[in-house]
Design brief:
393 residues, alpha/beta, Rossmann fold, 7-stranded mixed beta sheet, 12 helices, 14 strands
Length: 393
């Protein structure tokens, strides 16, 4: 195999990862994480100006009320400027939260008050300390009339976060259609935020004979340029070939070419008693064949006896240079080499199941201007947000 592929041996030292849910949407996301498989592996915090909202946070998440002098514990409504003031008022509390972290996830809903106004303040403190910072945020439905506020929040956040995972609620509605009510729709958005964080943490924390460790994640996530993340799962005949193609082929991902990636992080999970070296080689050759010859590829294999015949693969690609605008989409619904797609019955994964694996827009601190991108539906431009321009602090 190409010498740029790095086989990472098991590392017993655990990275110190902290997850901070900011505002109502961020609090809902950390609530979902507290109930998930990563409970106990991460330090989780809920930060809000609304004391009542903090009462709903699960045990296992530390509750941090900010801006009592500004909001009196009653929240700031949609006034993100007051939320920023609240965060700066309690900057010492924020510094205490992030102290000692190797990596910080910031989860928030954009378009309202606290999440929009306070998130970038937290990210800026992380930047000052050299902490790898990944923001995971939702964009409001177009009918909510909060798009301009959301763009301000994302623009501010992009100045300080290494990468931003953006989950547009309109896209979630496309995936789930008319099958669920409004409350369930917001629950799905919160779950997607949670699963995006969990997906990256699983890469770092899940043990295996060949591990991708935190240093590899940091190397990949710190690459200047755009980034994307995808997941796939396949069973049965030719599963390795189909899984590898499914994770790199996304019909709606226009304007981004994996061949331009400067960093690839690949994590394969399988029952290693039922997973051959031939399959490992096949999957990595397919993925390596789509990337630039000089790209660094970090590759890990994790053991999960419960998967049986199923292979799962997660791919994070960074340092992408695009000739057009990147799509910000779910990575579900891709097609494998057999044309059936990873959502086929053999995989047991539906398009909805994979809606929880959004693509990433990276805003690496050392880069220049980036575009947030447009959602594409059958080649039709649904939305063209303003350009996000990075500024050095």
């Amino acid at each position: 195999m190409n010498s740029n592929i790095n086989f990472i041996e098991e590392n017993k030292t655990r990275a110190r990862i902290k997850v901070i849910g900011v505002g109502g949407g961020g609090g809902n996301a950390v609530n979902a994480m507290a109930a998930g498989s990563l409970d106990g592996a991460l330090s989780m915090y809920a930060v809000n100006t609304d004391a009542q909202a903090l009462d709903n946070i699960r045990e296992g998440c530390e509750r941090i009320q900010i801006g009592h002098k500004v909001a009196g514990g009653l929240g700031v409504g949609a006034d993100y400027a007051r939320a920023e003031e609240a965060a700066r008022q309690d900057i010492d509390r924020i510094d205490e939260i992030i102290d000692g972290a190797d990596m910080v996830f910031i989860a928030a809903g954009m378009g309202g008050g606290t999440g929009t106004g306070a998130s970038h303040v937290i990210a800026s403190r992380c930047q000052d300390r050299g902490i790898l910072t990944v923001a995971v945020v939702t964009k409001p439905f177009s009918w909510e009339n909060r798009g301009k506020n959301a763009e301000v929040g994302i623009d501010n956040l992009s100045r300080y976060a290494d990468s931003i995972i953006i989950v547009p609620n309109d896209r979630v509605a496309e995936v789930y259609g008319d099958e669920i009510n409004l409350r369930q729709m917001f629950v799905h958005s919160d779950t997607i935020l949670s699963n995006a964080v969990s997906g990256i943490c699983d890469i770092i924390y899940t043990p295996g004979h060949i591990n991708v460790d935190f240093a590899d994640v940091k190397a990949v996530m710190s690459e200047t340029g755009q980034a994307m993340m995808g997941t796939a799962a396949e069973k049965g005949v030719d599963r390795a070939n189909r899984a590898a193609h499914a994770v790199i082929e996304c019909p709606l991902l226009e304007g981004i070419e994996l061949a331009n990636a400067r960093g690839l992080l690949v994590n394969i999970t399988a029952d290693q008693d039922n997973f051959s070296m031939k399959e490992v080689t096949e999957m990595m050759e397919i993925i390596r064949g789509t990337s630039a010859s000089g790209a660094q590829v970090f590759f890990g294999v994790c053991d999960n006896k419960e998967l049986g015949d199923e292979i799962r693969i997660t791919l994070v690609a960074t340092g992408l240079r695009s000739s057009g605008r990147p799509s910000i989409i779910s990575s579900g619904g891709g097609k494998g080499a057999n044309g059936s797609g990873r959502s086929g019955a053999s995989a047991g994964y539906s398009r909805k199941a994979h809606a929880a694996a959004p693509s990433i827009v990276s805003t690496n601190r050392e880069g220049g201007a980036i575009s947030q991108g447009s959602l594409l539906n059958g080649g039709r431009d649904e939305e063209t947000p303003a350009m996000l321009r990075r500024q050095h602090s």
